[in-house]
Amino acid sequence: MRVGIIGTGMVGRTLGGKLVELGHEVMLGSRTEQNPTAVAWAEQAGPSAQHGTFAEAAAFGELLINAVSGVVAAKALGNAGDENLAGKVLIDVSNPLVFSPLGEVSLEPVNVDSIGEQLQRDFPEARVVKALNTLNCELMVDPSRVPGEHQLFIAGNDPAAKAEVTELLHSFGWPKAAVLDLGDITGSRGLEMLMPFWLRLMNHYGHADFNYSIRTAR
Amino acid sequence: MRVGIIGTGMVGRTLGGKLVELGHEVMLGSRTEQNPTAVAWAEQAGPSAQHGTFAEAAAFGELLINAVSGVVAAKALGNAGDENLAGKVLIDVSNPLVFSPLGEVSLEPVNVDSIGEQLQRDFPEARVVKALNTLNCELMVDPSRVPGEHQLFIAGNDPAAKAEVTELLHSFGWPKAAVLDLGDITGSRGLEMLMPFWLRLMNHYGHADFNYSIRTAR
Q1: In chain A, which residue's Cα lies nearest the Cα of B196?
Q2: What is the value of ipTM here, to two decimals?
């Protein structure tokens, strides 16, 4: 499958590398034409790895991944172009992190809105699935780093899109039963609002190599 | 120990019942003098169970538990009286849930503030510990309902108060290692912001008999 990744950060590059490894063709999309990070990534990730602009990556992909920060996601996807998103599954991995000058972290939007919902509203023909925003990117593509059962969470309005994303996550090593469907795209609120808790856990453990396991009585 | 519980809802009554069972003296505090729910609870919970006003319960308790809803917590504790809170450990179990007329749930405050912080600001002489707001009340007092390892999270500015709360939770059946310290009282933000995720999980499972287990690679 051809996958277009919007964003050249650690998350985009890690997901892109795994997708290439799994035999997919990947284009890493950047704001600019010759982003040095994207060029270097494409060179080292192999012949199935390419780089381009946001619009080129979105046009290239049969499936798209938003891997830019939540606060700039709508703009980046606007640059990608409505026509390049229409009908495509768009995995939104982002978190709405805002850093104050003093280093304090807050979320925007939060509570009664989310990046997942914003993207689905702004790009109604994209099939947005919120996924993978709840864990470190190394763990996204290698769940066995953490022993035992632990889970991923998805939310979106399109059941077929969620099924397709679940298949993709399964190919990353996640048991299908470990991908919990939390309902429509408004489920993005709860998923994005996990971030402050996740940051506190990271402080507690002193590393990011952890994930949520939901344990049930029945 | 004498425990004063602010609030007569399901959470307050369940915690109160467990505390009586463990040999503590408990007063369930209510807005009014002869709240029928509090009277009935005190009658059935045994001779160590009493009921009173918020102020009476706060004066009675060596340790206090805020078990009213987050949005009315500051007012209830205001009625309880500063002098009855000073120097005491105050466990804040609340969540800042606001229900719209259409049944939609949001949080207030959220993101850059929390009920835990509000209470610590409003009652600077109380030793506020955020705890137990992340799970169903039946599970709070009976962790064995859910098999395997799963966790509680605490936050607060006073290490001795957190140690005291950890001991109390241990007496409820929680291993001490299952009580994760997430730092100062601003950790309440992340803990309170778990609620939308928790509600989605409850919808997913169709029941509230679940808890978080954090699994780590190291």
Answers
A1: A190
A2: 0.96
